Automatic annotation (TrEMBL):
It comes from Mesorhabditis spiculigera. One of its GO terms (biological process) is tetrapyrrole metabolic process. Keywords: Membrane, Transmembrane, Transmembrane helix. It is a multi-pass membrane protein. This is TspO/MBR family protein. Its main location: membrane. The chain crosses the membrane at residues 44-66, 87-107, 119-139, 146-166, 172-193. CDD domains: TSPO_MBR. Pfam families: TspO_MBR. It is found in: Membrane. It comes from the Eukaryota. Belongs to the TspO/BZRP family. Signal peptide: none annotated.
Amino acid sequence: MSAGNISNDLFFLHNSYLHTTRPDLESFVDRTMPFWTTQDTRNAILSTLVPGGAAALAFATFAKDVETVKWWEAVRKPQWAPKDVRVYSLVDVLTIAPLGYASYLVYKNGGGFDYNDTRLALGLYGTNLLLALATVPIVKQRKISCLATNSILVHLTAAAAAYAFYNIDRRAGYLMIPYSLWTGYYAILTWAIKKENEIVKDL
């Protein structure tokens, strides 16, 4: 190969590099094998602690609040509903725990907050967590109607976040499925409880 050919090839590569776009890079890099560093591992663990810690805190709150536990046991429920409030808290912990890792996958593989789809997905996720945390004071105040309404909002934002996550990173979407199903079940349950207690209203 002549020196002229090498020079031309180098010029072509240099010129191509200057005009490389994000789609070009995405087609070049294997998206199924993203670069993962020790810093990513640390960030993923920290992200997992956020929803997991919130769910654990809610579980501890309900478990120690004797009056709230007694109230929940006294509320009329459908026959298919678990009676113990701690069952709900335990399932909350198990289904919420993977969400932090899923959110970091979306952040990393979605290009961070520089892209609208990633901002939207993480915004839905954050809104859902805030609504889920609002369940704690609602139950402690024994407002069944408000709990039923909030549970629907929790489910809708969970389903929307799961869909948005899936469009960015399939693994993240899959990790959201148990939580989406549980919030759907919980929404149906709280509305059934509302119907069962309409005569007495909020106990």
